[in-house]
Amino acid sequence: MATALYSQQQKQIGTRSMLAETLPPASVGVTVKLYDDLSSAIVSGEIAPGAKLSEPAIARRFGVSRAPVREAIRRLQERGLVTYVANQGARVAEPSAAEFLALLDVREATEGMAARLAAESMSEAEIAALDALVRGHRGEIERNPMGAYLQDEPEADFHRRIAKGSGNPILAELLCEQFYPRLRLCRRLHSTVPGRGREAWGEHMRITEAISHRDGELAEILMRRHIRAARMALQAALAVSESAKPGKRRNGGKR
């Protein structure tokens, strides 16, 4: 818990310091909250991919001036959640499958490291909470064995817990603030492979067991395999989707 609290405090300090350079002091807190609200709305799907972000509309919705709205949108763009299109303005990002695959490549290395460090750094209470979290997800899997395993709430996300438990605030900030918002957006845009959710849950259980036994080397190996399996499943799903497009024969040849 101390690690998570430290990480959150560092995030807030860093955010406020950065914003203080560009905004009046009274606007900093407003912008931080607005950024958090918009980020949550985007990754949850409340604001749809491709939707235009109108500064006046957002200002009216949240009862703020245009300056914090502009700054919040700028930060969302830096995080990869928003793109700026010439003559169209800011829109919610629509990550491609290629971007999703590239994100998974980087996650394999960084999350493997996080799992190893977590096995060494997490307190017994944090490990017990991680184990309870994963076991609690079992009900979701049993209700829909072939469905997705999205872990929509940030604090209920297995990977965030491990990142924050790594004891490395730089790694935790990179994963939790840079990668995971984009990952959640990608998850919603690219269909989940049927049955992959159940497999992923089993992999989470084995990673948790390795961490609970303080076996950092095994935890890293299992986490890397877990991310690699997700990437392979996505690639397979994309191949099936491509072959099913009109104008393609089953054998992949041209008409």
Question: How much strand content do the residues show?
Answer: under 5%
What is the rounded Rg? 20 Å
Spatial strand arrangement across the major sheet: 1-2
Structural class: mainly alpha
Uncertain segments of ≥5 residues (pLDDT<50)? 1-20
Order of helix and strand elements from N to C terminus = HHHHEEHHHHHHH
Largest sheet: 2 strands, antiparallel
Number of helices: 11
Shape, per Cα inertia axes: globular
Number of strands: 2
How much helix is in the residues? 55-70%
| Distance from first to last alpha carbon | 60 Å
Please describe what this structure looks like.
The chain is globular and about 55 Å long. A two-stranded antiparallel ribbon has the order 1-2. The protein starts with a helix and ends in a 12-residue tail after the last helix. It is mainly alpha-helical and 255 residues long. A hairpin with a 3-residue loop joins β1 and β2. The protein has 11 helices and 2 strands. α5 runs antiparallel to α11 and α10 runs antiparallel to α11. It is 69% helix and 3% strand. The N terminus is likely disordered.
Key features?
about 260 residues; single chain; disordered N terminus; mainly alpha
Brief account:
The chain is mainly alpha-helical and 255 residues long.
Strand and helix layout:
Blueprint: H1 2-20, H2 25-43, H3 55-62, H4 66-78, E1 82-85, E2 89-92, H5 97-121, H6 124-136, H7 138-143, H8 158-164, H9 169-189, H10 196-212, H11 216-243
Antiparallel strand pairs: 1-2
Helix pairs in contact: 1-2, 1-9, 2-4, 2-9, 5-8, 5-9, 5-10, 5-11, 6-10, 10-11
